[in-house]
Design brief:
alpha/beta, six-stranded mixed beta sheet, 23 helices, 18% strand, nucleotidyltransferase, RNaseH-like_sf, RNA-directed DNA polymerase, nucleic acid binding
Length: 675
């Protein structure tokens, strides 16, 4: 190449010219070629960047090189078709309606020429070896962090968004967007963020920091705030989808005063009248970003499961595969062709009309939820389809799937009482390590205006502590825990409660955390998680009903008697009394006084003290035996429980119907409320 340097040639008329561009930090250059058929240079152009031009973004420098070439070689551009070969996405950038500043002027200036853009191909000759600098790939630029400022505005005159996308240099794109739909403030903020991220994606940005003055939106996107509104959840999911397309996305909160430019653009968009001409480049979003795009599904329905049978019955044609041909011959004996309709010879019904997919869907829909439909089960529905005289190969499977997807059947179907998972039980490692706590009531007013009962039970010894309360507050629960549990039996390892406000209180949780007590809450609407406390409630409630009679207001005075009787009763699981497991010996009950027992008649104080000491030495063995009996009893219950379960498994993205609890049902609907 040095021995034969490239020489400029005279351009050939009606032959397109090829433009190669090159930029550096301090200069831009270009070369015009014509392929005849080898590429030969026509002219070279170069320019040194002056002042602020050296601070242009890479994209602006490339466009400047093309503009400078068009100005210097205007006669070539006016008489030839120009093909610009470059790795820079100039066509995408110059065609964007959101351009601002110098790029708008250059785009208008270049629009007078017949310019086309192509990706740069590998050069066959070293025609550009003496260029000032080789073109720098875009990857080096987009790896820098970009800044995005967004703001949404919603008022009576309309709603809109303002977007400012700033590059690593002074390059910036300002976008004012008007919404063609009504939007709330949070919805406008989400739309602004999505519009800004889409603009950055189209510009090829990979690393970006987005700034928004909406505390709610930024915290929700960063998974700090919980999303309860279904519309906001859809917007959150859209933001998560578009974030995957970037290498790094940081979404941060900024005060409104620091986001003034984007705020002005948003207000300008929301207050602009439709059709009004302004100098600012505007964009309109006709519908929310979370709206699913509708598309027409076009399917070729000419071929279905009946086609091979119809072809065989019509002209005897069979597929090339021998196995498939034998199968069609065997099945064809059950079918006959009457006119253009295919029928199957049935057993319950002599002639069954064969249906394709669309016809089968109509028949299932009409039989299941039509005027004469009863929303029956899958098997019954399949039998009704056959009885009506229709057939297709997957009739039972399709009917069962149709019933599962029927919303009214899910809303008002019978409750599945059969358990879907195995039984799991809680084992306490030592006495008073795990306590279950629950509330019982309301009861008739007793002394002290008490109408509630706070119940706590130890999972190991089954010891019960209760306290009548006039009001159920977190302070009363904390006071009961301190007085009846901690100061009497020591610090427990864990405390199990439900999700009531008196238990899920911040101060109560801080009180337990300060004493290193683990607070475990039960599953929502699943009281069996704290089954020990529920069982204690049942025992107390049933005994109160039997003892009170008509004097319902004396329930608080009967509690000591009930607790005494319960603590002296052997339990099914441990085979011991709670008193025995707690103190190492059985309590003296009134019957031993009325009809003196052996230990009552032969009572000696010295022998009694010695026996109590022996019992305390043997209490660990008694407790170990009680733990073994408890484990055996719970395993037996688990085996019996697990023998009746109906396993159900759910996987990610499965659609399920959540049962509506009694508290969430509409009271006005009463018996007609959905499940």
């Amino acid at each position: 190449m040095l021995a034969a340097p490239p020489a400029l040639i005279k351009p050939i008329s009606n032959l397109e010219m090829i433009v190669y561009l090159s930029v550096s930090d301090h200069a831009v250059s270009s070369v015009l070629l014509q392929e005849t058929p080898e590429p030969n240079p026509v002219y070279f152009v170069s320019r040194t960047l002056q002042g602020p031009e050296s601070r242009y973004q890479l994209v602006e420098k490339v466009v400047l090189a093309l503009v400078h070439t068009a100005r210097r070689l205007r006669h070539y551009f006016q008489s030839h078709r120009m093909i610009v070969r470059t790795d820079c996405p100039m066509a995408k950038i110059l065609r964007k309606p959101e351009l601002a500043g110098q790029l708008v002027t250059w785009t208008i200036e270049l629009s007078q020429y017949d310019i086309h853009f192509e990706n740069r191909r590998p050069l066959k000759a070293q025609l550009l070896a003496d260029f000032i600098n080789e073109f720098t790939t875009q990857h080096n630029t987009i790896s820098d962090m970009w800044n995005l400022h967004v703001d949404g505005s919603s008022n009576q005159s309309g709603s809109g968004a303002g977007v400012i996308l700033e590059g690593p240099t002074a390059f910036a794109i300002e976008q004012s967007i008007r919404f063609g739909f009504k939007a709330s403030n949070n919805q406008a903020e989400y739309e602004a963020l999505l519009a800004g991220l889409r603009l950055a994606r189209e510009m090829g940005v990979k690393r970006i920091t987005a700034w928004s003055d909406s505390k709610v939106v930024t915290e929700q996107v960063n998974d700090t705030y919980q999303i309860r509104d279904s519309v906001m959840l859809k917007y959150y999911q859209e933001v998560k989808k578009i974030k995957i397309e970037f290498e790094e996305v940081c979404i941060r909160y900024t005060p409104r005063i620091m986001n003034a430019r984007a705020d002005r653009l948003a207000r300008l968009a929301s207050q602009r009248k439709p059709g009004q001409l302004q100098s600012m480049v505007h964009q309109q979003i006709p519908q929310p970003s979370i709206t699913k795009q509708e598309c027409m599904g076009i399917e070729n329905s000419s071929h279905n499961w009946m086609t091979p049978l119809v072809q065989y019955l019509t002209d005897g044609s069979l597929p090339q595969d021998a196995a498939a041909a034998r199968k069609i011959k065997a099945h064809a004996a059950k079918y006959l062709l009457l006119g253009k309709e295919l029928y199957r010879r049935g057993i319950s019904t002599p002639m069954l009309k064969c249906l394709e997919d669309d016809q089968a869907k109509y028949v299932m829909r009409e039989i299941h939820e039509g005027i004469c439909g009863t929303h029956s089960g899958g098997r019954t529905m399949a039998a009704k389809v056959l009885r009506a005289g229709y057939y297709w190969p997957t009739i039972t499977q399709d009917c069962q799937l149709f019933v599962k997807r029927c919303i009214p059947c899910q809303q008002h179907g019978p409750h599945l009482r059969q358990h879907a998972d195995t039984l799991r039980h809680i084992i306490a490692p030592w006495p008073f390590a795990i306590w279950g706590m629950d509330l019982l009531g309301p009861f008739p007013l007793a002394k002290g205006q008490c109408k509630f009962l706070l119940v706590a039970v130890d999972y190991f010894t089954k010891w019960i502590e209760v306290e009548p309360l006039a009001s159920i507050t977190a302070h009363n629960v904390q006071k009961f825990t301190w007085k009846n549990i901690i100061t009497r039996f020591g610090l427990p390892h864990a405390l199990i409660t439900n999700n009531g406000l008196q238990f899920a209180n911040r101060r109560f949780n801080e009180f337990l955390a300060g004493l290193h007590i683990k607070h475990r809450v039960t599953s929502v609407e699943h009281p069996q998680t704290n089954g020990q406390a529920e069982a204690a409630n049942k025992v107390i409630l049933h005994e109160l009903k039997r003892r009170l009679g008509s004097a319902k207001g004396e329930w608080a005075e009967k509690l000591p008697e009930i607790l005494w009787a319960y603590r002296c009763t052997p339990q099914t699981t441990t085979k011991e009394t709670p008193f025995q497991l707690t103190y190492g010996t059985d309590a003296m009950v009134p019957v031993e006084i009325g009809e003196p027992s052996f230990r009552r008649e032969n009572f000696k104080e010295s022998a009694n003290e010695e026996a109590l000491a022996v019992n305390l030495d043997l209490i660990d063995e008694i407790r170990d035996h009680a733990a073994i009996m408890t484990e055996a009893c719970k395993r037996m219950m688990a085996r019996k429980f697990n023998s009746k379960i109906s396993p159900r498994q759910f996987y990610k993205n499965d659609l399920v119907w959540r049962v509506t609890g009694d508290a969430r049902k509409d009271r006005q609907e009463r018996k007609l409320a959905a499940n």
